[in-house]
Specification:
By secondary structure, the chain is an all-alpha fold. The protein is built from 13 helices and no strands. The chain has one domain (about 60-75, about 90-435). The relative contact order is 0.13.
């Protein structure tokens, strides 16, 4: 009986010399043809050297460089084209550390609100962020809003008496005082609801009896709705602030602008016929001004929050982040163009090529300088976002570090933009008082 080692694969008997592993296997290979060899894979230089190749800076670094160059060039051009200080009559209002601290607190209020609103809406739109992280981020932002908002009520209100529901007899003597106070109280009430909503969801999450996914949906839905309501009420409060500053001059959409001729007054036929009360909010130009201002604030807040979310999220969905960032910037840009017709306090647009006409107007040169700086920062933000968009379209995951750097640069530009907006609003208020 032959041993199993002497059996051939075909059922016969192997020769003694072929019972080794090379015997029958060699004959089988000879009958089946030449062996099939695996293709040689050439090792890349990166694998041989044992270190990862750095991604090329490419469009991201180019966009960042262009953004910084635009900021420097705009500052230089504005300084070169502005008239000497002795040739215009703008009073200096940025004096001393108290003025800069006042502007810093107001800018902190704007950025805290923008980050809270933007991160809430952004987490909903992008599907990122754990509930505990969203709650932990919301607490300091809402507390900063509380502190800076309390300061603004005391030192940045639109009427001389303190706007309080316990002081209605005094505030009602001021034009638009009662309307302004009630609108501000409504805004504070919605803010209080946002705090209670955050407190309730934090307690429920701490107890752990409800699924985190369900609590997250409830939190984002409630916070987003309250945030959008705060945007609308903020736009109403800002317009009533302007109406109280301007009275008896008409609002800017009705011709109450600083120019060569006298501004329009309240009660002019075809203009602002309502001098006080909520009825002024029902007029078409006023509704347009409120809507544009609310959209401008919404676009800024959503964009700022998206930048923050993209920076702190480990692997954000870059394509959706880019898409919603451009949508937010588009909303802000289009509403900003519309506000040139409803919010600018001058009969001549405060653009660099109109400086000759603005020279004789109170705060004209200062306003134009700050407006040009704001446009320059907005242009830099567009350039950085364009570079981030080009990086997001590349499949190379090693470019994530450069993308994060661009997000951080955009976030810093957003903080700078908020400070410039507060400076512009202070000068705007000076123009309104001059009218």
């Amino acid at each position: 009986m032959p041993s199993p080692r002497g059996r051939c694969l075909g059922g016969g008997r192997c020769p003694p010399s072929e019972t080794s592993p090379q015997g029958c296997a060699g004959q089988a290979r000879a009958r089946s043809g030449p062996p099939i060899r695996a293709p040689k894979v050439r090792a890349s230089r990166t694998a041989v050297l044992g270190r990862a190749r750095r991604p090329r800076a490419g469009p991201g670094a180019l966009a960042a460089g262009l953004a910084i160059a635009l900021l420097l060039a705009a500052a230089g051009l504005a300084r070169a084209h502005l008239l000497p200080e002795q040739e215009h009559a703008d009073p200096e209002i940025f004096l001393g550390w108290r003025a800069w601290l006042h502007l810093g607190l107001q800018a902190a209020h704007l950025t805290a609100f923008g980050l809270w609103l933007g991160t809430t809406l952004g987490a909903w739109l992008l599907g990122v962020g754990r509930l505990d992280g969203l709650l932990l981020a919301a607490w300091p932002l809402l507390l900063v809003m509380l502190l800076t908002g309390s300061y603004n009520m005391e030192y940045g209100a639109g009427i001389a008496p303190t706007p309080s529901l316990f002081n209605l007899a005094e505030v009602s003597r001021t034009p638009f005082g009662l309307t302004y106070t009630v609108a501000l109280a409504a805004k504070l009430g919605v803010y209080g609801l946002a705090l209670l909503h955050l407190l309730a969801l934090s307690a429920l999450h701490f107890r752990g009896r409800i699924a985190e996914g369900r609590l997250r949906r409830v939190y984002l839905a409630g916070a987003s709705g309250l945030g959008l309501l705060l945007v609308a009420l903020t736009a109403v409060v800002l317009l009533l602030h302007e109406a109280a500053d301007l009275y008896p001059t008409a609002l800017h959409p009705f011709g109450g602008r600083l120019g060569p001729g006298p501004p329009a007054a309240v009660g002019v036929p075809g203009g602002q016929v309502v001098s006080d009360g909520f009825a002024v909010l029902l007029q078409g130009p006023v509704l347009a001004a409120i809507g544009l201002r609310g959209l401008h604030l919404l676009g800024f807040g959503l964009w700022l929050g998206l930048m923050g979310l993209g920076l702190i999220t480990r692997e954000p969905p870059l394509r959706r982040l880019v898409a919603w960032s451009w949508i937010a910037l588009g909303v802000g840009l289009l509403s900003g163009v519309g506000e040139l017709f409803t919010w600018v306090p001058f009969a001549t647009w405060p653009l660099p090529w109109n400086l000759e006409a603005l020279r004789a107007l109170r705060f004209g040169v200062t306003y134009a300088r700050l407006f040009a700086a704001k446009l320059a920062v907005a242009g830099a933000i567009l350039l950085v976002t364009a570079g981030f968009t080009l990086l997001a379209r590349r499949p190379d995951p090693r470019a994530a570090g450069l993308a994060k750097s661009l997000l951080a640069l955009n976030l810093a530009l957003g903080f700078l933009l908020a400070y410039l907006v507060m400076m512009l609003l202070l000068v705007h208020e000076g123009v309104d008082h001059a009218l």
